[in-house]
Amino acid sequence: METIQSIKGFADLFSPESDNFSFLEATAREVFGRYGVSELRTPILEKTELFARGIGGETDVVQKEMYTFEDKGGRSVTLRPEATAGVVRAFIESGQHAPERVSKYFTIGPMFRYERPQKGRLRQFHQINCEVFGTDAPHCDAEVMLMLATFLKSVGLSGLSFEVNSLGCPECRPTFHQRLTDYFAGLDKGKLCADCLRRTATNPLRVLDCKVAACKDVVAEAPRIDDNLCPSCKTHFDTVLSILDAAGLAYTRNPFLVRGLDYYQRTTFEVTSTNIGAQTAVAGGGRYDGLVELLGGPKVPGVGFAIGMERLALLLAGREPARKDFYLAVLDEKALDQGLLLAQKLRERGLSGEVSFAAKSPKSQLRLANKLGVKTCLLLGGEELAAGTIVVKSLDTGEQTSMPQEQFLATLG
Ligand code: HAM
Predict the structure, then answer these.
(1) Residue 276, pLDDT score
(2) Residue burial 254-285, b: 16+ Cβ < 10 Å; e: rest
(3) Which residue has a Cα nearest atom 3 of ligand 1?
(4) For the whole prediction, is pTM greater than 0.85?
(5) Does ligand 1 have an atom closer than 6 angstroms to the CB of 267?
(6) Helix, strand, coil percentages, rounded to 5, for the chain
């Protein structure tokens, strides 16, 4: 029979990669819990309109990357390309908002974007996502960034760069848009790539983060958002930065950081690494004060971020897997039952390890135990079976002792 292969850009995760994913998830749950963020699980499939309206019709995500299809009822549905729009929908639909209350949610799971797969870029990828609703205080922007930094430190990645920017608000952004549009209009048409030429009319901000070298040259001379913020956006941004300074979080201001989704206002940020190939963004987020209203909800501000798990897992690739405690090597057919029962007792006492299902020579069993990287190899042969003993061999020191099984179990409590 012909084998059936997975879909391009959709990966299977075996250990140790799956262990790294579990580790990231467990750490996020623990760290986010310290900040009062509770878990929300939203569906993977949503109405297409949610993303078209929420993320923005001009974005690459909506224009080119969505897995959209008609369900059997003829409705257009989409596999979520990101979590924020769905979380906002759930927040509105549940009626959870209460004035004076800040609501904080995290969600973990797969997202889908039809991009060209490469290292760190998949079509099904996973995010750890956090959203906070109900306050426009700059302190909240600082808190989510500090929480992200605490999470990264907790998983052992403290050397990553934070880039921050402010994109202004509906007050000051139109003026900045106009300045940008005027600047681009005054240029020779050949200076921008075809995509950016189109963007100058539809969304000039997006030109600022184009990766094409010629566009980058043009952008370097363009009007800068930080010179065009209204007083309240400027105060907001200054407050965020001063809290980050006081907390000792190192960051770089990047006036060209605009993010790929249209809902952002004011603070935006990205965490980048140069060690994961061409895809440098490990996490990204920002404030989206108009999104809840845009999706039909009350006037509630929000801020959040998402971490790309595959990219973080690449950075964790060298992490030592947790060592199992034992390998119980059965050396005699007749001892197979007792070996299994003894291994069961060890696991009931909290130890981790495996037992052989077939009797083999001590030499091959020890080779396997070393390969598994366990701390201790337990050897159970015909002699031990008759005497009710077990041979305990430390694979760290090579030391070996024989003792009654009951005594061995008693040492474990
Ligand atoms: P985003 O920047 O589109 O933001 O994605 C966040 C992270 O997801 C990226 O920094 C990257 O690590 C990872 N990522 C994105 N696309 C892929 C892919 N094709 N393969 C692997 N990893 C990928 C958002 O999604 C926003 N919803 C974040 C947010 C939450 N903003 C506010 N709240």
Answers:
(1) 81
(2) bbbbbbbbbbbbbbbbbbbbeebeebbbbbbb
(3) 260
(4) yes
(5) no
(6) 40, 20, 40
